[in-house]
Hints:
By secondary structure, this protein is of the alpha/beta class. Helices cover 31% and strands 25% of the residues. The chain folds into three domains: 2-127, NAD(P)-binding Rossmann-like Domain (Rossmann fold), CATH 3.40.50; 132-212, Regulator of K+ conductance, C-terminal domain (Alpha-Beta Plaits, 2-Layer Sandwich); 218-468, Rossmann fold (3-Layer(aba) Sandwich), CATH 3.40.50.12370.
Amino acid sequence: MKVIIxxxxxxxKQLINRISAGWDISVIDMDQDKLxxxxxxxxxxxxxxxxxxxxxxxxxxxENSSAVITLTESDEVNIEILKIAKQNNILRLSSVxxxxxxxxxxxxxxxxxxxxxxxxxxxxxxxLEPRRVVxxxxxxGMAEAIELEINADSPARGKTLKDIGSDYYIVGAIxxxxxxxxxxxxxxxxxxDLVTVVLQSGAxxxxxxxxxGSESRFPLEFGKNVAVIVNSEEHIKNLSESExxxxxxxxxxxxxxxxxxxxxxxxxxxxxxxxxxxxxxxxQIIQNQKNTLKEIENRINELSIGTIVVPIVEDNPxxxxxxxxxxxxxxxxxxxxxxxxxxPYQTIGILANNNFSENSPTLIGFxxxxxxxxxxVALKIDQPKFLTQENPNLSRQIIDKLQDIALSHEAKLDVIxxxxxxxxxxxxxxxxxxxxxVGKDELSGWQSKKxxxxxxxxxxxxxxxxxx
Length: 468
């Protein structure tokens, strides 16, 4: 995501040095010497020019930006810039306010205001990244206290304080399900904990990475191995995708469910062929005469299977087959990858909705984005206005939440806004993805189920179905 900062001031430097690496940053200032001497600890883009110029803002990337921050000493200039940002549908607008007489004009634009008398960098950081709440500095500026929420993929989740203890920070309190805990060495951190950490000022980055960062876990929540069905010669080409998926997730082993003879000739055995394809991947062959879904289903727990890879080689697969696999996924709580050979996965497509529960398609999408260094594209598809009265605030909340998750994962995120039928619009965009991720959303019921079936059946890319 991109943020544009207008005003190459000290506060801008402090903010840039603190916020997530997930932000692409552009800084605009009229003073060329000021820009030349504006040095921070990461790569940014600098633009000399008038921040109220549409041309300058376009050069800085306003058409693809998620946030704009104005730090000039003129409220008139700030407001003019923010108006242009508002016209470009930018949701996160923030500014210093120099004269309180302009407060209402800022509020008309839904701008988050910061008083110059406050610690500006910390306040702006909280506006950009509300997932962590920053409190005031103390001990003469040598220390500070921050509050961080432990997410499902936090590196600190499930660990005791003595396991992650350090000389440069201490955990002072934990808010858990409405109750305050004073922790000790054996206290284990859980998903949803709001943790208060007191730290030395120079330890900020390390603490954020430990508590608020992200750690890929998929598919270990479901099982440690990946199973792939190989029933015919046509299925062989999907082995490379299965290998890619196994190597680039936390999965340990690839299990091949294969017929005893899948080749028309007998020049080499199944194992010799598999060894030639899977040169560096550990695998196990399980041969069955029929190799039915029932046989695989009976061995899911025994083999600790975390994903079943099903080759889709036909242009028009049978709907009944797709439905049976989705039913298996839901009944056995195991993801199914409908493999169309579209690896490596550089772009992952998801549907933007308000399901952010643990192991939801959204969170698993970001988990995979971390391990694959992939970009997430979220499709925000609204019903035609004459059919629905969707709450615009809900749409904004969903996008804000997606952006927060992207920042905590330091993942690239694009949001595509569209209108129409969700399933058909997703398929129309699926040629932009290397992997599509869908699942049954209990909040939407049967409609969500139909969307998932349609996407699994018709997608141009491979589809990972996440069980409900």
